[in-house]
Amino acid sequence: MNFPRRNTWLQMLFWGGLWVLIPILLVGNLEKIDRMAMRSTVVLAGIMLVVWANMEVLLPRLYFNKKQTAYAIAGLALVVVVVGLISWDGAPWAEYFSRPAGDRGRGGSGSRQGGMQSLKLIGQAMPYFTALIGSTLFEIAGYANKKEKEASDYRSGKLEAELKFLKSQINPHFLFNALNNIYALTVIKSERAPDNLLKLSGMLRYMLYECKADRVSLQKEIEYLRHYIDLNLLKDSRGLNVEVELDESRPNMAIAPMLLIPFVENAFKHSKVEDLSQGWIRIRLDTTDTQIVFRVQNSVPAQLYTKDQEGGIGLANVRRQLELLYPGRHELAIAPGEGIFAVTLTIQAP
After folding, report:
1. How confident is residue 345, by pLDDT bands cut at 50, 70 and 90?
2. What local confidence, expressed as pLDDT, does residue 159 receive?
């Protein structure tokens, strides 16, 4: 037999104490205090038995295993057995539940005595039925709250894992190109090599460590964007047609990390920006006290062009990320057109 749980003990004491106090408050006959104390002790024991059996046996084995009919029958049987045991004339405590000698002679008609007997049985069963139903309701409510918390924790854990997965997908193509370009700078002993190596190092640190936070400052996200763009510009010493305007007037605004980079990555991936005569990219970030507006436009070659087939999280996954992080507080407008692809993301700041 398992030792009762703390909640079971509390329920046993609550319902037992309730039905011990009610007769004392209603009768208030201190001349028969000894008799009443013995009756209360027996009732308390019966109630504690009902509550223990209900919470430790019937509910977990029947009700919570979806055997409600069997539970109802077992609960009723439990109360009948306890009432029968307490009302048993051969029990050691029977004398405390019998009518006083002076009252036994006050008889009546058979029907009246039968009615009184029925009322007596109902009265005797009331404490135990009340304890059974009350402890059941409390336990079901606690069980429901526990399951809701478990479901909430599961949903939160699942969403957190999904967000971590989305943020962890680093484009390997960009990483290899950046390393190759920096290596080329070191070969020619360019003074730009150390600075660009620090930029790449800062990006990796941001991706691996700082992105673990739910929110980062807008300044950090802007810094990451600038480093990403600068490292992409290394591929052509003549310069690329990339225009960047990033509002840094509100550096402490909070934003989800790695939220803006997929749009920039998508632009470099599909614009064929290496074609200096046709390829171009425009990146603009504006802020107000309550909004962040991010716009990315890029050229679309006449022939479908994709720089690489792997890496990045893709715009479809970005939509999912926005739904998780900014439900009802964002607007993503994607406008593909002839020769141009435009994306506008509006986020309501918290």
Report:
1. very high
2. 64
CA distances from 338 to 289, 298, 300, 302 (A): 35, 11, 7, 9
The residue whose two tokens read 């074609």 is 275
Say how many C-beta atoms besides its own lie within 10 A of residue 269's C-beta.
22
**H/E run at residue 247:** none
Residue with tokens 């614009």: 271
One-letter amino acid at 235 equals: K
Which residue carries 């509550």 as its tokens? 51
Give the β-pairing of 281-287 and 242-246. parallel
Q: How many whole angstroms separate alpha carbon 350 and alpha carbon 292? A: 11
d(CA 85, CA 132): 17
Q: Return the closest-CA partner of residue 296 out of 256, 254, 242.
A: 242
Tell me how far apart the alpha carbons of residues 198 and 47 are, in angstroms, rounded to a whole number: 74
Instruction: Decide if 342 contacts 295 (C-beta within 8 A).
Output: yes
Instruction: Give the pLDDT confidence of 240-299 residue by residue, as tens digits.
Output: 889 999 999 999 999 988 889 889 988 888 888 888 888 899 999 999 999 999 999 999
The domains located in the chain, with CATH, are 6-156 (no CATH), 169-348 (3.30.565.10)
Q: Which two tokens stand for residue 65?
A: 């295993």
15 close to 47: Cβ distance less than 8 angstroms: yes
For 337, list phi and psi in degrees, rounded to 5: -145, -175
Query: Is it the case that residue 154 has pLDDT exceeding 80?
Result: no
